[in-house]
Design a protein that fits this description.
heterotrimer; A mainly alpha; B mainly alpha; C mainly alpha; A: mainly alpha; Helix Hairpins; elongated; B: mainly alpha; three-stranded antiparallel beta sheet; two-stranded antiparallel ribbon
Chain lengths: 123, 1040, 232
């Protein structure tokens, strides 16, 4: 098996996901949990981008120099994952912002950020 | 057709503009949003109509003018339009419901709700899997926004847990989407369905997407976050989540369902059934209304997930089943959540405040019924078809699981309904009756009724008769009129119905004719006693008529579906009648649970029959040849819950004893006969099967033991109505015994007992009920010496007990005489001995009844008591005349009975010479015996009377007390605990082993529920791990 | 106990990921969708940046969804935090001289850079979201330098709402006069690679840029104005 950049990225993405998950499951502070989930999301985004890679190709932007209307088919990588990842990032941003504001309000309600303290609703 | 993008344009455009409006225009937000939703609904209808009329077929709509998979496309078809209409109408009514709230909050709220519902529409239409991801996220975000409608620490923590869970779930979905793209090169769902790659990575990718959508639907046990949201958020938000978000997600699952291969169907079925049973089980222990609704909602959705998993099995019935069950759930759950917000009570015990506005109670009842799947609501038909189709596919284990789950659901829903109907609410706070909150609930209540009617028409091709049900609705609307008007109307209605069906039945089917007479004519007679009640008697007539309609439908049923429909209606009506009694809350619950359990046994049996014969005609019972033992046992158990045979009898004493005075005869003398009728239908079928002999033997034993235990227990009662109730148990034991013999004479005796039991038990219950109304107690030791105050009642009871005890000359003897002939003929000597012995025991309690109540010393406080009400006396004496006629001329009814039974058992019939009946072991002339005894009685009476003239009259107080006040007044009554000696020696026979068995069962279920629900420990972090574990568990089970 | 359980869970997830990617091969050929985009986009949508064409036109509905996500996030955050009408000026929030001076220099430049990025979104790597994010960070910088600075909510709301509204209007126009919802060919495609080209894409991306910038600023502004001592 040859090591190519996409494989490295893929591996890194998965590692980021695992780190994020572990953090989200084990840390007690709500802010840290949010950050961990953000890391998890980033891992997924790296994974998405790496899946669009084609060996030895470049970005799908016609600059009239390296990439032209004629050769774009042969020199550019898959543009779809890039479009998808843009959407995923923006959505992740929205969710993270919302969670942080939630964290703010949770802190105001109990003066703590320990997630164990927020289990009034159960069973 | 309007493009769905206009919906998107209206939703988003208005949503964006609402952000622009300043604080001053806040008060118009509701109106603006409402208009937007009106457009949404209009769009949905404009799509639905052409599809419903089949003018157009499903169409794909492209964006940006490029073809999919290169651009995002939407699809609009009939089911899309249906779902969109459901979602949008919920949105419209939600805005109405939240009108004031939206106006008082910042205008953001209206915008968020608008965008949420627009998104739900898009989720229904979208055909691009990444686009679905985007809409899923938007739905999650906007949901997490409206959760904060009530801003308090509960909604904050619930919303945060929701965000945590949904971010894990949507990440799983996103990974699935990207992998699908990587392996298949497309994001277009239709491409994926026609042409999915078979490589492992692609299969895993599809798995990830599917499990993520399943997780969106809150599968048990990875659903703690959802429960917390249901509990913590405003109930109106619960309505949106349960009715709107879950409905849209369910449609997603439906969209993806063509991707299911065997493995994935398995996933859906397991996840769904596990959720249905597990969620309902954990709900049992729950007493917070909104959380309980959450459990129920999750359970129902679980059932629907399983149904989608069974799509290949259900064939062309799939859509009907799924939509009926979904619509019932959707309307009922939204309605219940709204009700919860109207009354603002979170403890289910406090839902009794519903009674402040009877309309709300009725709506509550409608919603509960439609959740459980009782007729005439759509889910009844859906569940029926589901059970039939699954049975037809030999999925008996699944049928069992679904029925068990439904039963568990019925436990807590009926307990809740019982609380609402019975508990006291005088201490609880008032609530506002705001029109904008009531209208949505009323609309959904009306819709679920209408949907039931529509579904019924779809399935039975209009053979079901809805006119009686319409009459019941009418009765409800005139419920504020005085009781005597409604009583007259009800009697007229029953009379008219009898006139419609009885003559025809007399010609065609004697068996049904006899039961129809018991049900309908008996109904009229017992209703006469209703004139004794003053005031309005609210709620009585609709439910009483509901029971009679159910009974009539059972008689008229040609198919198993009609039979089951009638059976459930009858059960529902009688439940409401029973629970009207004073201390009936527990008895009502145990009655309905036994009945529903029994009904499900019957349903399962019908399913088994359908599996073999592919036919739902009642006559196909006789055709079945496979699984005979199971089918007959299930049916027998089902019917025996109604006849209260030993082991299934524990609901009866309390239910009958606590019922109102004129209800007791209805539920005892009349209702129990429904079980007998069912047993007749069963036995007719069994007669065709030699294998059924075994079951007959067992049923015979059960009957004999029921007779014995019932009579013994009756003898030890101090409560007059309880005594009669136990007596009913034993009488029904005789009937079961007679039926189980499956011979001509056996059936004769069962039939004679049925008719006679109807007559004398009506008399006894009516009389004792009337006495109870006068003296104000059921306890016999508080009565005594009433003979002079109540001669009419005394004579009635005397005749009643003579008839019941089966001594000549009254009609009960006919039953006994036939009975012993039949026993000897059948060679069932052991059982016969038991029955004979229990016949002797009957004398003990009958003596106690008349002696304790009417003879002995008159109590001080009853000295001025008057005789029973004339409105009770009239039906009682009509029935007595009936007894007298059939006692004097027994051939009047025995001959037709013999002819009828000869149709089933031609051998061993009675031979008649005039009024003289000949059986193999003796002969009997009813008229002769009557005359002889009449003469003997007159002579003895005259002799005694002549002697009595010499007697000296002694006043009651012409005795000397020892100047001691008794500590326990009841001990001064001579017949108190009169059979204590017997109790010491044979009391163990009536030890409450069955009561213990059932209460242990109940406790056990409760403990399991209480233990299990502790996995929902309220910590959002744990909930995230639950989700991941759930996904991994399914992955390793399914893929390896 | 709990920790070792978590490690097992994460290990199981790692195994799951390994299961998926153990057969992974680097792609050699574009798949049919990517091949279609790379060969037809220049003539169909006319944007030099293929990704932009996909984001704004082919998968424009996703992008509308993204905008909605941000819009919702601002709406909800505003709804949760419920700003007061008047901001309390509190002099105890003082920042350093360097930050204040740096902000004065950098903020105008950042704003212009942001605008440049979204206007050139169809030509260069960049676009509405990226440009908007730059604008947003300029505002963040402004607020970091002077927490008592008043950023007008009305203005933010106005920019956000109108640009969002016009985005939808352009989408509907596509439905009416061109091939479908969000079709960029409501305007002529122009010459590939020039600033005024690719139909409606630059216009849409500008609206997106303005909207995203306003939204990010709004979120930060909202949080900034909420004091931690607020009662619920």
């Amino acid at each position: 098996m040859t090591i190519t950049i996409d494989k490295i990225a893929l591996f890194l993405g998965i590692v980021l996901m695992l780190i994020g998950l572990y953090g989200a499951f084990s840390l007690k502070s709500i802010i840290r949990i949010i950050l961990s989930l953000s890391i998890f999301d980033t891992g997924i985004n790296v994974l998405i981008v790496s899946l669009g890679y084609l060996k030895g190709r470049t970005a799908p932007i016609i600059d009239g120099d390296k990439v032209t209307v004629e050769n774009i088919f042969n020199v550019a990588i898959d543009p779809v994952p890039q479009a998808l990842v843009l959407t995923a990032i923006v959505i992740g941003f929205g969710v993270t912002a919302l969670m942080l504001v939630y964290a703010l309000k949770l802190y105001q309600s109990k003066k703590t950020l320990d997630i164990n303290q927020f289990s009034d609703l159960k069973w | 057709m309007v493009s769905p993008f206009y919906l998107l344009g209206v939703g988003l455009g208005l949503g964006f503009l609402l952000g622009l409006t300043g604080k001053n225009s806040k008060k118009y937000t509701s109106a603006i949003t409402f208009v937007a939703f009106a457009f949404f609904v209009f769009f949905s209808i404009s799509w639905l109509i052409p599809f419903a009329l089949k003018q157009v077929t499903e169409t794909l709509i492209y964006t940006a003018g490029f073809l999919p998979p290169f651009s995002i496309s939407l699809s609009v078809g009939f089911y899309e339009a249906v779902f969109s209409l459901m979602i949008n109408s919920l949105g419209l009514l939600s805005i109405l419901f939240l009108w004031k709230k939206i106006n008082s909050e910042s205008n953001a709220l209206g915008g968020i709700i608008l965008v949420l519902f627009m998104t739900l529409n898009m989720l229904v239409f979208a055909r691009d899997i990444f686009n679905i991801f985007v809409w899923l996220e938007i739905a999650a975000i906007s949901t997490s926004g409206i959760i904060l409608l009530d801003k308090n620490k509960f909604s904050y923590s619930a919303g945060f847990k929701y965000l945590l869970a949904s971010s894990i779930i949507s990440s799983l979905y996103l990974i699935g989407v990207v992998l699908v793209y990587f392996t298949n090169g497309t994001l277009f769902l239709n491409d994926l369905i026609t042409n999915a790659s078979g490589v492992t990575m692609s299969v895993t990718a599809v798995f990830l997407m599917l499990i993520a959508i399943v997780l969106e639907l809150k599968p048990f046990p990875a659903n703690g976050w959802a429960l917390d949201v249901y509990e913590g958020a405003n109930p109106a938000i619960g309505a949106i989540m349960s009715g709107g978000v879950a409905t849209a997600s369910l449609f997603l699952l439906y969209k993806f369902s063509p991707l299911l291969d065997n493995k994935f169907s398995y996933l859906f079925v397991i996840a769904g059934l596990l959720t249905f049973v597990g969620s309902n089980l954990f709900g049992i222990k729950q007493d917070k209304a909104n959380r309980l609704l959450g459990y129920s909602s999750i359970g129902q959705i679980g059932l629907l997930v399983a149904i989608i998993g069974f799509r290949p099995f259900l064939g062309d019935k799939f859509e009907f089943i799924a939509i009926t069950i979904l619509v019932s759930h959707f309307l009922a759950k939204a309605g219940l959540f709204w009700l919860s917000d109207v009354i603002k009570q979170d403890n289910i015990k406090n839902w009794s405040v519903l009674r402040r506005k009877p309309l709300l109670l009725v709506l509550f009842g409608i919603f509960v019924f439609s959740l459980i799947g009782l007729p005439p609501f759509p889910s009844f038909f859906g569940k029926w078809e589901l059970i039939m189709m699954l049975s037809g596919g030999y999925k008996f284990a699944v049928v069992t699981i679904i029925l068990v789950g439904s039963f568990i659901e019925a436990i807590y829903l009926f307990r809740w309904l019982g609380y609402a109907i019975k508990l006291d609410f005088s201490e609880l706070p008032e609530y506002k009756f705001e029109l904008n909150k009531i209208i949505p609930v009323v609309i959904f209540g009306a819709l679920v009724l209408g949907a039931g009617y529509y579904a019924g028409n779809l399935i039975c091709l209009k053979t079901l008769n809805y006119i009686p049900l319409a009459f019941i609705v009418l009765l409800y609307f005139i419920d504020s009129l005085p009781a005597y008007i409604k009583n007259t109307l009800s009697i007229l209605a029953l009379g008219y119905y009898s006139y419609l069906i009885l003559p025809n039945l007399y010609e065609t089917d004697m068996l049904r004719f006899i039961f129809a007479v018991i049900f309908l004519i008996g109904g009229i007679i017992t209703l006469v006693a209703g004139y004794a009640y003053k005031g309005k008697r609210q709620g009585f007539y609709p439910v009483a008529l509901l029971m009679y309609v159910g009974l009539a439908l059972i008689i008229q049923a040609q198919t198993t579906l009609e039979f089951f429909f009638g059976w459930e209606l009858m059960t529902a009506g009688s439940y409401f009648l029973i629970i009207r009694g004073k201390k009936s809350i527990e008895h009502g619950l145990s009655y309905i649970l036994f009945s529903i359990g029994g009904a499900y046994a019957i349903l399962a049996a019908f399913g088994l029959i359908y599996a073999e014969t592919s036919d739902i005609l009642l006559s196909s019972l006789s055709v079945a040849t496979q699984n005979i033992t199971l089918i007959f046992s299930l049916l027998a158990i089902g019917f025996m819950t109604k006849t209260a045979s030993l082991g299934l009898h524990i609901w009866l004493p309390g239910a009958h004893a606590e019922a109102e005075s004129d209800v007791s005869p209805m539920v005892s003398a009349i209702l129990l006969k429904a079980g007998v009728f069912g047993l007749f239908i069963l036995m007719i079928a069994m007669g065709h099967n030699p294998e059924a002999e075994q079951i007959g033997l067992i049923l015979g034993w059960i009957g004999a033991l029921t007779a014995l235990v019932g009579n013994l227990a009756a003898a030890f009662q101090e409560d007059a109505k309880r005594l009669l109730a136990y007596s009913s148990i034993s009488q029904l034991g005789y009937i079961l015994f007679g039926l189980a013999m499956m011979t001509h004479l056996g059936w004769m005796s069962a039939m004679v007992y049925s008719i006679n039991h109807f007559l004398y038990k009506s008399i006894l219950f009516l009389t004792i009920g009337a006495v109870v109304l006068k003296v104000g107690t059921h306890d016999m030791y508080k009565m005594g010496g009433l003979i002079k105050n109540m001669p009419l009642a005394f004579i009635a009871v005397l005749i009643g007990i003579i008839a019941l005890s089966g001594v000549p000359p009254l009609s009960g003897f006919a039953g006994k005489w036939l009975f012993y002939n039949a026993i000897i003929d059948k060679h069932w000597y052991f059982q016969g001995a038991i029955v004979f012995f229990s016949g002797i025991v009957a004398f003990l309690y009958l003596f106690k009844l008349i002696y304790s109540v009417f003879l002995g010393q008159l109590k001080d406080n009853l000295r001025k008591v008057k005789d029973i009400s004339v409105w009770f006396a009239i039906p009682i004496y009509i029935l007595i005349i009936g007894i007298m006629i059939i006692s004097a001329k027994p051939e009047l009814y025995l001959k037709p009975l013999g002819t009828m039974i000869s149709g089933f058992y031609p051998n061993g019939e009675l031979s008649w010479t005039g009024g003289l009946a000949n059986a193999p072991y003796g002969y009997w002339n009813g008229s002769g015996v009557m005359i002889t005894i009449g003469i003997m009685f007159s002579l003895l009476f005259l002799w005694l009377w002549s002697l009595s003239r010499k007697a000296q009259k002694v006043k009651q107080f012409n005795i000397v007390y020892a100047a001691e006040a008794p500590q326990r007044p009841e001990t001064t009554h001579i017949s108190y605990n009169i059979y204590a000696g017997y109790y010491k020696s044979i009391g163990w026979i009536v030890a409450p082993i069955f009561e213990k068995f059932w209460s242990t069962m109940t406790e056990w279920i409760h403990s399991v529920s209480d233990f299990g629900r502790r996995i929902y420990n309220g910590n959002g972090q744990y909930y995230m791990t639950h989700i991941l574990i759930y996904m991994l568990a399914f992955y390793f089970i399914l893929m390896h | 106990m709990r920790n070792s359980f978590l490690i097992i869970l994460i290990a199981a997830f790692a195994w799951f990921m390994y299961d998926i990617f153990s057969e992974y091969q680097t792609q050699e050929q574009l798949n049919k969708t990517a091949a279609y985009y790379n060969s037809n986009e220049p003539s169909e949508a006319g944007a030099a940046n293929v990704v932009t064409a996909i984001v704004v036109t082919y998968r424009g509905l996703d992008t509308l969804g993204e905008v909605t996500v941000l819009f919702l996030a601002t709406l909800i955050i505003g709804f949760i935090l419920k700003n007061k009408a008047e901001k309390i000026i509190d002099s105890k929030y003082k920042t350093s001289e360097i930050l204040e001076t740096g902000a004065k220099v950098l903020v105008p430049g950042s704003l212009i850079l942001g605008v440049y990025i979204f206007i050139n979104g169809h030509l260069t790597p960049g676009g509405g979201f990226q440009g908007g994010a730059v604008i947003g960070s300029a505002i963040v910088l402004l607020l970091l330098a002077d927490p008592n600075k008043i950023v007008s909510h009305k203005l933010m709301n106005f920019i956000e709402s109108t640009s969002g509204f016009f985005y939808v209007v352009i989408g509907i126009l596509g439905l009416i006069i061109a091939g479908g919802f969000l079709d960029n060919r409501i305007f002529p495609l122009g010459k590939l690679g020039s600033l005024i080209s690719a139909g409606a894409i630059p216009l849409i991306y500008s609206f997106i840029g303005l909207k995203v910038g306003a939204e990010i600023s709004g979120i930060v502004n909202n949080i900034n104005e909420t004091e931690l001592t607020d009662k619920l």
